[in-house]
Amino acid sequence: MVKTAVITGSTSGIGLAIARALAKTGANIVLNGFGTADEIRTVTDEVAGLTSGSVLHHPADMTKPSEIAEMMATAASRFGGADILVNNAGVQFVEKIEDFPAEQWDRIVAINLSSSFHTIRAAIPPMKKNGWGRIINIASAHGLVASPFKSAYVAAKHGIMGLTKTVALEVAENGITVNSICPGYVLTPLVEKQIPDQARTRGITEEQVINEVMLKGQPTKKFITVEQVASLALYLASDDASQITGTHVSMDGGWTAQ
Ligand code: NAD
């Protein structure tokens, strides 16, 4: 049976790499995320070229529960629901706590945590009906440990780890697994945008941010690639991974071993 995957925030970075990898298995793909009309068309056409299934882009804004519900309803009406749900959309904002704008806190918690609550609750009923499902939450090394100036991000990523475990227990007998992936630094637009911000906040050069802040804590001293994260997601989505649930897999170059 052709599987259907919904991947939030899949017009760029890690989400797009996961969409490409799942498309190569022949799955139907529901893309989501922002971009110009041209960018979205290009990404949709590219992913459609990788699968024998169907590909659509849904523009739901992950800060808006009604739009998330509409995206999940579209997956249900077009494909009978998501067999594989990848909660990947995420944003960052770097500032010291006393200057951290409240609206950035609300935005980050909405996108990086609450959106997964909304997608998961809609995804579970069809997964239960099929007796099979895979939920993969893209958390972060920041789901396990903290860094200064990232209060909202670290709090939201710790939150998704708790949501992962709770839902995994609730659906453990239904053939549904729920796991998090905790990457270290992956070179994507999200990380590239942080480099000038961190340089400003810390009063250092961009090169120092890369070598002395980002890769300082990553013992391999190399950025992780989006393809490496996608390949782990592909494994967690497989039948071989049916006994991995309620946990996380780190891919952080040794960061959290310290
Ligand atoms: P990215 O900026 O390349 O991609 C983010 C995606 O989310 C884009 O498609 C964007 O359009 C989408 N998005 C942003 N706001 C949205 C919203 N309100 N509604 C819908 N879509 C929205 O980022 P990335 O680095 O690929 O990050 C993907 C995930 O991986 C995030 O959850 C991030 O926290 C996590 N992560 C990234 C790294 C890293 O080093 N890049 C490390 C650990 C975890």
Task: Furnish the topology, listing elements before pairings.
Layout: E1 4-7, H1 13-23, E2 28-32, H2 37-48, E3 55-58, H3 65-79, E4 84-87, H4 102-130, E5 133-138, H5 151-170, E6 176-183, H6 189-202, H7 206-214, H8 226-236, E7 247-251
Parallel strand pairs: 1-2, 1-4, 2-3, 4-5, 5-6, 6-7
The site of nicotinamide-adenine-dinucleotide has 28 residues, from helix 1, helix 4 and helix 6.
GO molecular function: 3-hydroxybutyrate dehydrogenase activity
Organism: Sinorhizobium medicae
EC number: 1.1.1.30
Bound ligands: nicotinamide-adenine-dinucleotide
At the fourth CATH level, what is the homologous superfamily?
NAD(P)-binding Rossmann-like Domain
Low-confidence stretches: none
Could you estimate the helical fraction of the residues in percent? Answer: 40-55%
What fraction of the residues are assigned to beta strands by DSSP?
5-15%
Total DSSP E strands: 7
Number of helices: 8
- Classify the secondary structure makeup into a structural class: alpha/beta
Main pleated sheet: 7 strands, parallel
Q: What is the number of domains?
A: 1
Taking the alpha carbons of the first and last residues, their distance comes to 43 Å
